[in-house]
Design brief:
alpha/beta, Leucine Aminopeptidase, subunit E, domain 1, Aminopeptidase, 2 domains, nine-stranded mixed beta sheet, seven-stranded mixed beta sheet, binds ligand BES, binds zinc ion
Length: 515
């Protein structure tokens, strides 16, 4: 241990402490950083951490650890994510106390705690604090809070800095949850760890630049994950796609020198819980979207490495599913291509035949996501999926409609829509139901083929969803447009700038809660 680092050799766990090692997942490169988390049932005063994080609720005067005067002075008000760091607070062994605003008590929920934990970790990490303990009041020490706090800490700790070579990276060694009298919450710690690590795997994949993460490389990462967690994984190559008649997918891929890859990852429960159900998770895997011949403007194009975020969320979700073992079979389908304007690229006006037999006039080669998803949805149906969810960075129009706050959710069936909305709400992921009425089909008319791949100027997110609906056919299906939410243009107090890993937690809960 280098001098001056607050060691965790000083950490003195109580006798009920459970230590779990947290390894940030590294699909493509060995990662050296390990953050440990501990759940402890012991009096807060005894916790010897670099910092003890104490949530403070709005309108409730905190008097412990010298907070009384600061509350009187209005310096601590308990507003959400307000952070006040105090050194040498009275009555604690911890070096510092971080009073963390938790908002109104009646509005406090796991989502708030997740953010609070993330903000605390990010703030303390920036101050080079190495060991962090978060205090939970006994009445807050319940499984869903414990999971959320652990998730918040691990998600907040994540930095998309893999390709920065300096040795000045700040790291946290230990994150502990402390609840006096809390017991039996180890399982909740594990659940939180599994979910957050899966989400961080997704973020790692999305963060990879497109020169290093080609379709073949995503397939490798998926296979590596699958073999680590004992899932079945196959990767279809172009010849197999040709045989299956995936003309829509192959049309997109033909402009790139990189071959396409269609990843299939299967989870099978030991005993099926809900007979006859087979959930298919379909994720858009465009490793880079130049727009093709309908090329995008240069400004901001670098962000289009994130166009495989839907696919990456399915890889993350399957990893967590392999560990948490829901009762239903779940299969991920991830069509991976690079959308390039090469000399063999498809042209506007080209007509392709999708696997379902429908013909598509490609009006705009930049509307490529729906083309590859069309064939992926058909394939998932042919593989026997009874219910489908897709996630895709599909349209700029969803960003216009909902900004960066809500995932756009489209469904062809109310029950399926409500299941996904319920899972999202429980996981604190904001999703908003959008319309998907048959009248919108008009917009996709083509004079020369069964349908066009774009629907004109208006309602772009809806017409994109409408296009997919043609290929989901009568299978209950939900489409998540994550174009506005998969990437944070600015850091939040509790999350780094860059990939967010959105939808992973919702998809895992959807599978776990299936009755
Ligand atoms: N990957 C993009 C979606 C996108 C666009 C995300 C802008 C974030 C910002 C997708 O493939 C695309 O280019 N969609 C087009 C569709 C249009 C040509 C009908 C879009 O939204 O502009
Ligand atoms: Zn595009
Ligand atoms: Zn795209």
């Amino acid at each position: 241990m280098p001098p001056g680092r607050e060691g965790f050799q000083n950490w003195n766990p109580g006798k009920n402490a459970v230590a779990i090692l947290f390894a940030a997942h590294a699909p493509l490169r060995a990662q050296s950083r390990v953050m440990q988390t501990i759940f402890e049932s012991r009096p807060l005063e005894q916790v010897e951490a670099g910092a003890l994080v104490v949530p403070v609720f709005e309108g409730r005067k905190e008097t412990r650890f010298g907070a009384g005067d600061l509350c009187e002075a209005g310096e601590i008000a308990g507003k959400p994510l307000e952070l006040t760091l105090v050194h040498g607070a009275p009555g604690v062994a911890a070096k510092r106390v971080l009073f963390a605003g938790a908002g109104k008590l009646d509005k406090f929920d796991p989502a708030e705690l997740r953010k609070l934990a993330g903000a605390a970790v990010r703030h303390l990490k920036s101050k080079s604090v190495k060991t962090i303990a978060l205090a939970l009041d006994p009445d807050q020490a319940k499984p869903e809070n414990v999971s959320a706090a652990v998730e918040g800490a691990i998600l907040g700790d994540y930095e998309p800095d893999r390709y920065k070579t300096g040795n000045d990276k700040k790291t946290v060694d230990v994150f502990a949850l402390v609840a006096a009298g809390g017991r039996g919450l180890e399982e909740a710690v594990t659940r939180g760890r599994i979910l957050a690590e899966a989400q961080n795997l997704t973020r790692d994949l999305v963060n990879e630049p497109a020169n290093l993460l080609t379709p073949s490389k995503i397939a490798e990462a998926a296979q590596q994950m699958a073999s680590e967690y004992r899932l079945q994984c196959e990767v279809l190559d172009a010849a197999q796609m040709e045989k299956l008649g995936m003309g829509a997918l192959l049309g997109v891929s033909q402009g790139s020198a990189e071959p396409p890859a269609f990843i299939v990852i299967r989870y099978q429960p030991a005993q099926a819980g809900a007979p006859g159900v087979h959930l298919g998770l379909v994720g858009k895997g465009v490793t880079f979207d130049t727009g093709g011949i309908s090329i995008k403007p240069a400004d901001g194009m670098e962000k289009m490495k994130y166009d495989m975020a839907g696919g990456a969320s399915m890889i993350g979700a399957l990893r967590a599913i392999a560990q948490l073992k829901p009762a239903i079979p779940v299969t991920a389908f991830i069509p991976c291509v690079e959308n390039m304007p090469g000399s063999r690229a498809q042209r506007p006006g080209d007509i392709v035949t999708a696997m379902s037999g429908k013909t598509i006039e490609v009006i705009n080669t930049d509307a490529e996501g729906r083309l590859i998803l069309a064939d992926a949805l058909s394939y998932a149906r042919r593989q026997g999926c009874t219910h489908l969810v897709d996630a895709a960075t599909l349209t700029g129009a969803i960003v216009v409609a909902l900004g960066h706050l809500n995932v756009g959710l489209f469904a062809n069936e109310d029950a399926m829509r409500d299941r996904v909305l319920g899972a999202a709400r429980a996981e604190g992921e904001r999703m908003w139901a959008m319309p998907l009425e048959d009248d919108y089909k008009e917009y996709l008319k083509s004079a020369f083929a069964d349908l066009a791949n774009v629907g004109g100027r208006w309602g772009g997110a809806v017409t994109a969803a409408m296009f997919l609906k043609e290929f989901a056919e009568d299978t209950p299906w939900v489409h998540l447009d994550i174009a506005g939410t998969a990437w944070l243009d600015e850091a939040k107090p509790y999350l780094a700038k860059g990939p967010s890993g959105v939808a992973v937690r919702t998809l895992v809960r959807l599978a776990m809660d299936w009755k």
